[in-house]
Every structure is written in structure tokens, then in C-alpha cells.
Design a protein that fits this description.
The protein has 494 residues and is of the alpha/beta class. It is built from 16 helices and 26 strands.
Length: 494
Amino acid sequence: MGMTCRELFEGIDCTIIGNDSEVVEGLSYSSNTVSSGDAFFCIVGLRVDGHSFAQDAINHGARVIVAERKVYLADATDVVEVIVSDSRKAMAQAAANFYGHPANAFDLVGITGTNGKTTTTYLVEHIAHTALARTGVIGTVGVRIDKRFEHAERTTPESCDLQALFAKMRDAKCDTVAMEVSSHALDLKRVWGTRFAVTAFSNLTQDHLDYHKTFEAYFEAKALLFSSDYPAKRVICIDDAWGQELLRRCAAAGDEVISTGFDEKALIHPVSVTYATTHTDIELDVRGNRYAFTYPLVGRFNVSNVMLAFGIGLELGIPANTIVDALKSAPQVPGRLQRISAQHDGGVSVFVDYAHTPDALEKAISAVKNLSSGRTIVVFGCGGDRDATKRPIMGRTSLAADYAVVTSDNPRTEDPNAIIDAIVAGMGEGEGRFCVEPDRRSAIARAIAEANSGDSILVAGKGHEDYQLVGGKTLHFSDAEVVAEELERAFGQK
């Protein structure tokens, strides 16, 4: 597929220097991936400035350079330059143009918040599928197009990649797409120019402060999805002050909003909840009507996810009874309070969860404690090259369990022992109630050895991930696989 410069930059405030009839064959933001005939966007990144790679992009075949300022080009006699005020925003708009605004072909649901995004997207997909829609999902676990799985590098892909995904979903005749929208993606304009049918907010707790610096900046990044730049129907959980502020803003703007939460003021709230080890019994008040049903997910935080998904389903025009029928058979989301099955488990229940923030860890521990007849043991660590301020808080939070094993997560370029030291610094009140085991497999084995029949173990932090990032290496490591192996090693020979 090809498009002239004039067509590609239609509706974008820019200055085209050169032949505006130059045909663009593709879009690129990395000089390493440029193909002949591409338009190369000079993105000002967090570590490098794409303007420095313009000549390299030309050497690889780029015919158009999109930049925020004129760049020195040694060999650019027939290269078109396009000057824009914001290359990220221009790239997102151009990508939407290039692929024919594919998100307009289906109902796109954007879900943001610190915790619960992945589970909610899966629930929305399942609800829409039950309503006979063809569906797509984009998020942390990966991409699914009409139930076919594809790997994804980011929670929310870069704008060029995102619009290409949308085009695949359009071509696959998807009717509804549920998408996680990260704060980074909003701040970096990856979804700019995209039309949403519904946007939803789950909660806001400490995370990504290495990037956003303050809670207020983190919130404002999330809040962009509820601004006039992204007009849509809104579903907002109001169980924290941030959700209440979003509700106030959206109401003031005249948006259509469904509020959810444990607060009785929410349009969707629980009348009663009974938790079990394999399911939850619930009665919901949904805008004055009551629905009682059982769904196969556990924990209080999944009540929040179920209510948010219920609200999204209503905003998509799906009947409440269809939503209830779908939730009765809700899918287990990989790495989200996932109970690990093993032929021999010694009566010990082990759950794997992606919880990697203080709030998520607190909620996951609480959920497991409510499901356990014995003690609760938690295995956890913190990622390297990420928000370091949450490490001692995570340590302190882990003491809600009866015993904690502090280990390595994804240390990346940091010293794993230094990360662990920062975690332990917050555990001063827990002397004798935790231990340190830097090797993650050994930590899981140690937790199993510590457990007795009737106890429960929560292995937190990595969830669905099947790798560890250590130094510059990506090592295969799946908590679910290791848990199953270590359970068999501990109990299979007895």
C-alpha cells in the first residue's frame, strides 16, 4: 500500500519541503527498521533523539523525514522533509491516515488505571464474544485477534504498530476491541487520533513514579483518556479519590458516565458478596436493578473488575442479562490470581499473580488470606530500573502475610541484592517473619518447604511473564512452571 505525502499528512499542521506527491510505502520511527520508501519520524525519546538518526534512515532507504526542526543531511537532494511541532503527535495522526483510520470500523474500549486493566479487558472480550461479537484484545499479556494470539512488546504499542494492529483487526472483521491504555502511552501520544467508543478507569495507586515523578502527574496522564481529546462514553470506578475526581470532571463536561464501586453511590455496586476458593457469589445493584450470579474468579479486587466490565458492557449496548450470562463463565486470566495445579501439592494452594505495586500486593495477599484455612506465605521482589521509592513500601506491605520470602524479580541492569536491600529496609517490624533468597526458583522452593497442608502461597510480581530480565539477558522463567515443578519435587516422591 502506498500514499502520497499530501495524503499522509492531511489534517496535520506541517510544512512539506519538497515533492508532496512523493509516495510513502511505510512508516518507521527506528532507523534500524527503515525500508525503502518509508517515512521516518524523528522522535525525541527518553534517552536518544531521533533527529540524530535522520541520515542513517536515509541511508536505509527513507524517502521522507518528519522532524520538529530542520536537520543537517549530507545526502538529501531528493528527500522530502516535513516539519511538525510535535513528531509523536504527527506520527500517530499520520499512522491513522496511512491505515485508513481502522479503529472507526469497530467499537474500541480503552481501559486505564494502575491495576485491573488486563483482567477487565479479558472480561470485556468474553462479554462481547458471548453477545456474538468478533473480538480483539490488546494489552500486557499480548494481542488476540478473533481468538488468535500474537506477542506484544508493550502494554500499549507505539502508534505506528498500534494502527497496524487496528488494521489487522478491521480486516479480521472485529466488532469490539478491548485495549489496555497505559499512562506512558497517553503521555507519549501513542493513541492520539484514535476514536474510542468507551473509556474506563479502574484505580490509581503507586507505580511508574520513576517516569511521572509525582502522583499528580501520573493521574493527569491517565486523565487524558477522559479529556475532550478522546470523546467517548465513560465507566469510572469511584472507590478512590482519583476516580471521584475523574467522575467530577466528566460530569462537568456532560459526558455519559456509569460509575462503579463498593460505594453505594456508584450506579453499579455490590449488595452482597461471598468469597470462595474457586468462585465468588455476588448480587449487584445495577442502576436500581438487582442481579445475583456466581462467577469463577476470586478475590475482592476481581469484584471491582467485574463491576467495571459490567459497566463497559452496558455502554456497548449489551443487555444486562447477556452480561450476567457471560460473567458466569468468565475466563481465568493468565497470571492473575491463577491457582497452579499439580498432581501432588501436599494440600498447599499456590497462586501466581502479577501484583507488582504496593496496592496490588496488598489486595492479592488479602484475597489469598480470605481463601486460606491456614497461613499465607508470599514470595515477591521488585523490578530494577523502575520506581525505586515503592521498594520499602512493598516490603512493609508484604508483612500482611504470615511469612514473606524476598527474592529477585526482573533486576534488569541493577544489582538484585541492592534491590532486595531496599525492600528489606521497609520490613523493620517483621523480624523473624521473613527471609531473603535472591534466586527466584530457590525462593519458591523455600516457600513450599515452609508451608503445611492447608497453607496458601502467593508468588507475586511476574504473573503471566515467562522470562526474567537480568543484566542485558532475557532468561526463560515462568512462575507457573516453576511452582508446578517445585510442588512435584516437594510432594511427588512421598
